[in-house]
């Protein structure tokens, strides 16, 4: 009772009133003190961690920003010893045009930091992070060229066991027409390694392929996405054997009985193995398909069960799809500025990112957001490396973005590339209509381990 006379007891009495229980009062007080103490301690801990993390991020940002500062020292620091075929593009020098420089017109190519000569493709470095991708001795090698027709347009598929790359010519352009499908060919990267250039071998028309425009590996086969020709030959997905006689099987040619518009490109989800493909209306634009009947959207097809569903819509021209290495993020190039056979630069030439619904059967594309808007031409084929960096085929070559959509650099070839394909570690094949380039650098394409593929030695 003596303790009841202390100030603590006075507060305890208030406690009594509040709690209506004599015995509980001291316990309550203790609990309140402890609770308050732990809240204070927890709050300061959270505050400490948050401010520590903020300081870390700020330091990282400042270190990064420093690389772009227009002070000779900051830039010189990491650009010292850049390989000859690399050009540093200093963002800060781009902010205001020099009085004598002409404005760039939407269809032209922008070459900051250098004047472009077709003889010399270059790596344009916009961010120090690009150096990790390039490594010590990056190169861009012209391995095949044929100015007679656009043989190297789309559907690049690297087949590891033979180290060959398949590709198709530009559908709707000669020699293809409403009367004739486009040309499928292949080249050998081993030949390119041995001789510096590779022979392009045309493959005899494969009966099920009509106006091929996209391709990717599916198990141990080539999956070709075909735009279709006229109304007699509908758009299809077809599997083709990678070796002669290249026999094939159509695995999809309709949506609930309807023909697709003109299927364009596909990627396989790294976890579910479902096929995701896009259906813009370029067949109509190119006068080799009837007017479209379906929206321009993205589909998911399970080749095992046959189930098909739409996972995203609302695009101008849905083009190249891609997934992050973990399959949780989807990307889509909207090439809407290539519009009605011409070019409307006010329409999207934008890469969007989505979260992929974690339900492996649904896999709806959620939370659409802008990933990047490309400055030249349209974004077309997209591929990712093992670190989640994204490579987009565009109007002046390949644009390389960090997983957050920051432009790290360009593999600048000065003309359009419609699609690209990694050929394992350190090699990227760039299709450029009448040319094929082989880029050698430090990056590695998303693993094909899920198909159990290994490269010919
Ligand atoms: C842009 O440049 C192209 C080729 O030089 C030209 O045909 C076109 O008229 C120009 N457009 C504008 C808006 O200046
Ligand atoms: C090609 O033919 C072989 C032998 O008939 C068959 O096992 C294989 O599945 C065929 N491949 C395709 C893609 O149709």
List its traits.
457 residues; alpha+beta; Neuraminidase; 2 domains; six-stranded mixed β-sheet; four-stranded antiparallel β-sheet; 28 strands; disordered N terminus; binds 2-acetamido-2-deoxy-beta-D-glucopyranose
CATH third-tier fold name of the largest domain: Neuraminidase
> Based on helices, strands and strand pairing, what is the structural class?
alpha+beta
Q: Order of strands in the sheet with the most strands? A: 1-2-25-24-23-22
| % residues in beta strands | 25-35%
- Distance linking N and C termini: 90 Å
Task: Give the distinct bound molecules.
Answer: 2-acetamido-2-deoxy-beta-D-glucopyranose
Integer average pLDDT? 90
Based on CA atoms alone, the radius of gyration comes out at 28 Å
For the record, the CATH class of the largest domain is Mainly Beta
CATH superfamily of the largest domain: TolB, C-terminal domain
Q: Major sheet, described briefly? A: 6 strands, mixed
Morphology call: globular
Low-confidence stretches: 1-21, 66-72
Helical content band:
10-25%
Structure annotation, total helices: 7
């Amino acid at each position: 009772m003596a303790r009841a006379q202390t100030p603590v007891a006075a507060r305890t009495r208030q406690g009594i009133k509040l709690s209506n229980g004599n015995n509980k009062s001291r316990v309550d007080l203790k609990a309140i003190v402890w609770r308050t103490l732990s809240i204070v301690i927890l709050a300061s801990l959270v505050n400490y961690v948050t401010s520590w993390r903020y300081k870390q991020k700020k330091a990282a940002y400042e270190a990064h920003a420093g690389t772009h500062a227009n002070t000779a020292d900051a830039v010189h620091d990491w650009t010292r010893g850049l390989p000859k075929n690399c050009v540093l593009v200093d963002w800060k020098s781009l902010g205001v045009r020099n009085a004598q420089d002409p404005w760039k017109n939407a269809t032209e190519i922008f070459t900051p930091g250098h004047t472009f000569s077709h003889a010399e493709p270059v790596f344009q470095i916009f961010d120090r992070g690009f150096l990790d991708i390039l490594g010590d001795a990056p190169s861009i090698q012209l391995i095949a060229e044929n100015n007679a027709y656009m043989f190297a347009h789309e559907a690049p598929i690297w087949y590891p066991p033979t180290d060959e790359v398949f590709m198709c010519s530009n559908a709707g352009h000669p020699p293809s027409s409403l009367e004739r499908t486009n040309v499928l060919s292949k080249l050998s990267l081993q030949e390119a390694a041995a001789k510096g250039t590779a022979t392009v071998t045309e493959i005899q028309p494969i009966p099920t392929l009509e106006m091929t425009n996209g391709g990717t590996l599916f198990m141990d086969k080539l999956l070709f996405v075909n735009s279709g020709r006229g109304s007699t030959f509908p758009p299809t997905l077809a599997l083709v054997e990678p070796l002669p006689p290249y026999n094939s099987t159509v695995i999809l040619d309709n949506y609930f009985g309807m023909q697709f518009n003109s299927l364009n490109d596909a990627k396989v989800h790294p976890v579910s193995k479902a096929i995701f493909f896009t259906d813009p209306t370029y067949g109509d634009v190119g006068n080799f398909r009837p007017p479209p009947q379906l929206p321009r959207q993205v589909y998911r097809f399970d080749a095992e069960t046959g189930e098909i569903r739409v996972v995203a819509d609302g695009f101008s021209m849905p083009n190249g799809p891609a997934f992050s290495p973990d399959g949780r993020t989807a990307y889509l190039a909207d090439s809407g500025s290539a519009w009605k056979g011409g070019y409307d630069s006010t329409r999207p030439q934008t890469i969007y990112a989505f979260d992929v619904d974690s339900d492996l059967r649904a896999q709806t594309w959620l939370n659409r957001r802008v990933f990047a808007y490309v400055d030249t031409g349209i974004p077309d084929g997209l591929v990712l490396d093992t670190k989640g960096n994204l490579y987009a085929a565009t109007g002046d070559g390949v644009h390389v973005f960090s997983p957050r959509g920051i432009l790290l650099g360009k593999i600048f070839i000065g003309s359009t590339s419609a699609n690209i394909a990694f050929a394992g570690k350190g090699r990227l094949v760039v299709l450029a209509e009448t040319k094929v380039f082989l880029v050698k650098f430090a990056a590695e394409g998303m693993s094909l381990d899920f198909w159990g593929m290994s490269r010919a030695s």
